[in-house]
Amino acid sequence: MGVFALVAALVVGFIAWRANDLLTTKVVETLEAEVVGLREQYQAGGAERLAAIIAQRSGEPGSGLYLLVDPSGRKVAGNLDRMPTELEGAAAGAVFNYLRRLQERQAAESRLAVGVLLPVPGGLTLVVGRDIEDLSRFARTMGQLGLWGVGLLALVGIGAGLAVSRSVLRRIEAITGASRAIMAGDLSKRLPLHGSGDELDRLSQSLNAMLARIEELIVALREVSDNIAHDLKTPLNRLRNRAEAALRDPVGAASYRDGLVKTIEEADELIKTFNSLLLIARLEAGAVAESMAPVDPASIVADVSELYEPVAEEAGLAFETNAVGGLSVRVNRELVGQAVANLVDNAIKYSRADAGSYPDASDAGPDSPQGADPPSQPVSVPGSASRLGSGNGALRPKVSIGVRRAGDRVEIVVADQGPGVAPQDRERALQRFVRLEKSRSHPGSGLGLSLVAAVARLHGGSIRLEDNTPGLRAVLTLPLRPAAATAGVPLSTGAAAP
Amino acid sequence: MRVLVIEDDRETAQFLHRSLRESGHTADVAGDGDSGLALAREGRHDVLIVDRMLPRRDGLSVVQTLRAEGVRTPVLILSALGEVDDRVKGLRAGGDDYLTKPYAYTELLARIEALTRRPAPEEQATRYSVGDLALDRLSHKVSRGGEPILLQPREFRLLEYLMKNAGQVVTRTMLLENVWDYHFDPQTNVIDVHISRLRSKIDKGFAKPLLHTVRGAGYMIRDGAD
């Protein structure tokens, strides 16, 4: 603040000094011009003419100051009373004081003037001057005003500075307080916003966005643990009951063996559920981003089709792949493969005659025990086939998988002709642990579709469920890699980030 | 074969020790990374089972150190961390296979047996044969009893992997990993369907089946009775 006042004072002082100097110089210049004129007059008409002109000019109101003296120092003409001593020896002109009587019988007033002194041939001396009293007063007033201004400015500046820094400090204090409360465990609290949109506000905004994301993750984590408590305890309890029942069974060894086999099966199911849960949690935390690479989605779809096509045929379903090649997405091949496999798995499962309702992801439970071969005879065409729209009972229900381009996105579409999902249930079907059938008799963790959703989100994509009339169509959308968009229509603007 | 188990959980180590003995192998156990590294350096073991999280020195560092010192003993890394990135890290550190806890003992056994059988790259055979079934890896031709058998590319790879590990149990997960390059658990037993297709091509119409199902474990291709 002191620096500011000092600089202001310096600036004002410099302006005042320069102004004063400028005024004096200007006056001296006019004087010199006049002196040139007078010298010409003298050359034309000699001393008499000069004296006459001076006498004439001296009488004019508001005129300059003149004095012409002879060698003895006696006044010949002019309106100055005496020779100003300040001028003697000053070659370029100088400032001097003189007395002026405004009216008769009034006290003479000392005024400031600028004048030049020049010798006239014949021993005469001429003084030409200008009154600068008014100018100098004006300059003084200006100087004072300037000083006052500086003072005022300094005061206002210091005051405003104090006020700003106090308000900033108060806001920082509020932010500190809020962050303390957040650290103390109140994750729903946010940093205060001032509403001005300044740097501090923007900082608070982005910190708030960060807090919102953290809260979201914590809530998701809490949900996971709640769901673990809910959905893992039940099978754990079942497992425990089974072991207890086997121990109590009087039959002995045979029953133990059976109990143990079932216990291991249950444990395997639990492990699968647990693995899916962990994977979803990790995906939602965005933990595997580093292992992504550009992949043609058609190759992923081809791999999964190749894996599942025999399964679909064994289940008596028609299987169709329809993939547009040459597109590129930046993904973790394994995860997207798993997501697509989950979708195809569901599609096949729910196209079967004994299908439950969606989504019922993890199977491979009691109905397909480890070590047993699947039925080598194709499953008979599901009885539900006739009500699958076509009306042609001989037509096998179809499971189809395809890749297509939609603007700057790639869509992987898996469709079946099973019972489908009611529109009001579709949103819920994507949530964790949701199985739409009320009884939990059907095996499955209900995590299949939520895993697909988590994979989609991780890659900046989405999953939606549509009506396949009849059946369900799951559309997994992934952002197209802009650089490699060579196939199909030209890439629209606002392409997805890589 | 002689197995070194580097595992800090006593109960797991004891379980492995006993189970491996019952399967006809000898097992040494080390309870932490440093003593495990010291034992592994002696080079007396055919395969190492290394837990990833160990006291004193973690499993990955043990494997890295061994590899840096030129110890080429096959390593199976055991870990509770089973995500894609963890597996990649494990294999990059010099592990030959990666198994996620919890696992079935049959899975672990099948994997270490496959590891000890793994021939060095330069001595990989170009022709496999089991009984009268022959597979040529260069010309991609398969025949049984002199009769050519037509296989789809994936079926060929499936048979190739089974024949490479002839006489040994190959689990479904191993097949999924090695033939399809997927490390997740498919919900349906898709592998069974593929095996069943392959079986209908190589065993159907022949008196002696070669492709066997090993109950509770996986599959095995071998010449001989069940």
Please give a structural write-up.
The complex is a heterodimer of chains A (498) and B (226). Chain A has helices at 2-59, 133-183, 199-248, 253-284, 297-314, 333-351, 423-429, 448-458, and strands at 65-69, 75-78, 94-100, 109-120, 124-131, 293-295, 318-323, 329-331, 398-406, 409-415, 462-467, 472-479. With 498 residues, chain A is α+β, with helices and mostly antiparallel strands. Chain A is rod-shaped and about 155 Å long. The model of chain A is unreliable at 357-393, 434-443 and 484-498 (pLDDT under 50). In chain B, a hairpin with a 4-residue loop joins strand 7 and strand 8 (141-144). Chain B has helices spanning 10-22, 33-41, 59-68, 84-92, 105-117, 153-164, 172-179, 190-202; strands at residues 2-6, 26-30, 47-51, 75-79, 97-100, 127-130, 133-136, 141-144, 147-149, 170-171, 211-214, 218-221. With 226 residues, chain B is an alpha/beta fold. In chain B, the strands form three sheets. Chain B has a five-stranded parallel β-sheet, sandwiched between helices. A four-stranded antiparallel β-sheet of chain B has the order 6-7-8-9, with helices on one face. In chain B, helix 2 (33-41) packs parallel to helix 3 (59-68). The model of chain B has no long low-confidence stretch (mean pLDDT 84). In chain B, 38% of the residues lie in helices and 22% in strands. Classes of the chains: A alpha+beta (498), B alpha/beta (226). Chain A binds chain B through residues 264, 267-268, 271-272, 275, 278-279, 282, 287-288, 290-291, 303, 306-308, 310-311, 314, 332, 334-335, 337-338, 341-342, 345, 348-349, 361-364, 368, 370-374, 376, 444, 448, and chain B through 82-85, 88, 100, 102, 104, 154, 180, 182-190, 192-197, 200, 213-217.
Determine Rg of chain B (CA atoms, Å): 19 Å
Secondary-structure element order of chain B, N to C: EHEHEHEHEHEEEEHEHHEE
Radius of gyration of chain A: 51 Å
Give the number of helices of chain A.
8
Largest interface: A-B, 43 and 31 residues
Strand order of the largest sheet of chain A: 2-1-5-4-3
Number of helices of chain B: 8
* Run of helices and strands of chain A: HEEEEEHHHEHEEHEEHHEE
Distance between the termini of chain A: 51 Å
Share in helix of chain B: 25-40%
Tell me the structural class of chain B.
alpha/beta
**Main β sheet profile of chain A:** 5 strands, antiparallel
| Estimated share of beta-strand residues of chain B | 15-25%
Beta strand count of chain A = 12
Query: What fraction strand of chain A?
Result: 15-25%
Oligomer: heterodimer
Which regions of chain A are unreliable across 5 or more consecutive residues at pLDDT < 50?
357-393, 434-443, 484-498
